[in-house]
Amino acid sequence: MRRDEQDAAEPVDRPAHRVRLPGFLPETEVGLGEAIKRTTSRVGIKPCGSCLGRAASLNRWLVFTGRR
């Protein structure tokens, strides 16, 4: 089995990348997937099942925070 196939077969739990946006967010954390989901729903796009899975995946990858 090639290395890239092996990496795809084994999910790795890595901590989310954190980006500080102190002037834009209160003390809560918001994932990238949640931010995209909120934005698209406000412009009238309804989420589907795959959208919810994608949002969860993006939330695990990148989190915006207003605190240290």
Short description:
With 68 residues, this protein is of the alpha+beta class. The chain has helices spanning 3-9, 32-42, 49-61, and strands at residues 17-20, 29-31, 62-65.
Judging from the principal axes of the Cα atoms, what is the shape? flat
Helix-strand makeup class: alpha+beta
Alpha plus pi helix count: 3
* Overall mean pLDDT: 78
| Total separate domains | 1
> Radius of gyration over alpha carbons?
15 Å
Contiguous uncertain segments of 5+ residues? none
Main sheet properties = 3 strands, mixed
First-to-last CA distance: 42 Å
Helical residues, percent: 40-55%
How do the SSEs run, as a string of H and E? HEEHHE
Number of strands: 3
Oligomer kind: single chain
The strand line-up of the biggest sheet is: 1-3-2
Strand percent estimate? 15-25%
Structure description:
There is one protein chain. The longest helix is centred in the last third of the chain and has 13 residues. The model has no long low-confidence stretch (mean pLDDT 78). The protein has one domain. It has 68 residues and is an alpha+beta fold. 46% of the residues lie in helices and 16% in strands. Strands 1-3-2 form a three-stranded mixed β-sheet.
Which key terms come to mind for this protein?
flat; alpha+beta; about 70 residues; 3-stranded mixed beta sheet
Outline the secondary-structure elements:
Blueprint: H1 3-9, E1 17-20, E2 29-31, H2 32-42, H3 49-61, E3 62-65
Helix pairs in contact: 2-3
